[in-house]
């Protein structure tokens, strides 16, 4: 049994890594068959899908985790619960779909989302299927059926990209081809998962289980929704102010490229959180978070400096505009990794504060965008990236302050400031915008050497710390 679980866990981890890195591998292909304008529309549609997946799921995929623990020894009741939640979500989705199909809503939808009605409709259907898939995936994870989750995710991933390439390049469906491929992929995953989900289902609807699920699931919507809006609201606001989809497409490419840091971040924080909960006041554990932030900053510096060479080599010329957005987007990605601070609040059972922090970040982001984009319209996309960085940084600072005052846990804050300034400053921005050439490369290498010197200057045990990070980031895959 232990051997089976271990193999399943390894396959699950490997599948997640393949999917995260695979998306970046397919990115140069997608940018060659999609124009920047089409990629910009994807940058608008993706948030629509993500946000409606959260709303239509009602947080039930989290409730399943808790209820499984309560009912795992009562098979019939567990199957009744599974039937209740999935039937209700299915009914809700069909009701929303009917509303979206009402002719008078077509103009309203296009006016709100600034995108073709049919594209929004397809995105909505994708979100509906995703809301069902997420429940099954949550159940199989808690049941430790990692192999099934991994295989299903890989099937969906490759189905999506293979069909997208075929629909766009061979059938010339453009952005519609991308959305149809996505829809086919999530439906394939739905069939794969729900054959197992319904295998022993007990067809009985329970009002009590429904009330319990709504009561415990709906509040989670606001936490996740606010967090996603911080990430995605900028692109929607850019569309509202009629910023060209070509510019939004370049910005979306920069944002998508920055996701490579999430591969490193997720692996580290999963391992670090376990250590944190065992001994939260251990100063060494807090130092490890500082160390990890420094490594992320180093990756950010390298990626920002050599983004002109990488983008010029891998992507068509009309995507070169993405270069100027890389420093601000990558720095936002490393600041966002400080969501690790949320676990201090979870540990001390003060999770309600996280909602306040995230909502405040959203208000700052949206307010600054609404104020500054009309004023600096020629630099609107860069402003959107900068306001996101300001919002995320403000959130992190507030969390640092409260962790210090309420939980009496301190960090060496100057370290975070130094790493932040090394990753985002006028000199680095200047170097990223220099013409590609030998002199530019030498100057960039010099900057990196200076940064390495600064990072390891006060860390006599940096070799030992690098080994620690390697074990936390990739150790579980080996």
Automatic annotation (TrEMBL):
It comes from the Bacteria. InterPro entries: Poly_Biosynth_Transport (IPR050833), Polysacc_synth (IPR002797). Its main location: membrane. It is found in: Cell membrane. Keywords: Cell membrane, Membrane, Transmembrane, Transmembrane helix. It is a multi-pass membrane protein. GO terms for cellular component: plasma membrane. Coiled coil: none annotated. The chain crosses the membrane at residues 6-27, 39-61, 81-105, 117-140, 146-168, 180-197, 209-225, 237-254, 290-307, 319-341, 353-376, 382-401, 413-431, 437-456. This is Polysaccharide biosynthesis protein C-terminal domain-containing protein. It comes from Sneathia vaginalis.
